[in-house]
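Late entry, evening session. Most of the bench is empty. Finally got around to the prediction I had been postponing all week. Sequence below, unchanged from the version circulated by S.P.
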Amino acid sequence: MTAPMRAKIIDGKAIAAEIRSNVKQRVDHRLSLGQRRPGLAVVLVGLDAASQVYVNNKRKSCAEVGFLSKSYDLPATTTQEALLAVIDQLNQDPEIDGILVQLPLPPQIISEEVIERIHPDKDVDGFHPYNVGLLAQRIPKLRPCTPWGIMTLLEHTGEELKGKEAVIVGASNIVGRPMGLELLLAGCTVTTCHRFTKDLKAHVGRAEVLVVAVGKPDFIPGDWIREGAMVIDVGINRLASGKLVGDVDFEGASQRAGWITPVPGGVGPMTIATLLQNTLYVAESLSDH
């Protein structure tokens, strides 16, 4: 017989729905004042199946909150020059507040150059070095969506973050590195673990806040988790059976953690909700039209 689950669930789906509802109200208010709809351009290069799902979810969410959504589905053979030309056009488009280029990009395209070509004030993914630099300097403007969404999840627990031991497993540009900056900004003592880390178990066992983003199913065993920890599982992995699981052994971790995000229904919905928040922020605060 399994022990009763003790961790409280951090319901990303419900929190994301609250955010979308709030964004929709603010869009409706803008329209009532005769102002234009916030606009998001979504650029997809090639036919990567997972990317197509993400992009469709983003477009659906745009429609739900009343944004103008422009879609650019480019063939996998698109050249760097052609993609940069699309971004230049969108940078100048007065109807577009946010530009999102879905990663990963085909091998002939240098992702860093594409991200840097997006105007920092339209970089609603928060990946531009300028925006990451602002976060590092404690003056964030457009924040990377997944880490900021995770901060919203942590805030919803009502727990005080200042002084907590926070451990991040995974050091990617999209999640791990900006996550460290967000947690530092919140007053945590932050450790980032990566492929060269020695004794991962010891680091995880210290964590009062644990964020795992490595893309490997059940990578962190439940019995590594510190009693009462807040566990944020960014991973979304499909097993051969078709079941979706995270990077943390959910059943095991739930016996020890104080709070935990489910997969699916935890971090995933927050990333898109935060993208909508960023786009609205541009329309309300950064746009000069």
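Two things to note before I forget:
Residues 193 and 199 are 10 Å apart (CA to CA).
The chain has a mean pLDDT of 96.
Will write this up properly tomorrow.
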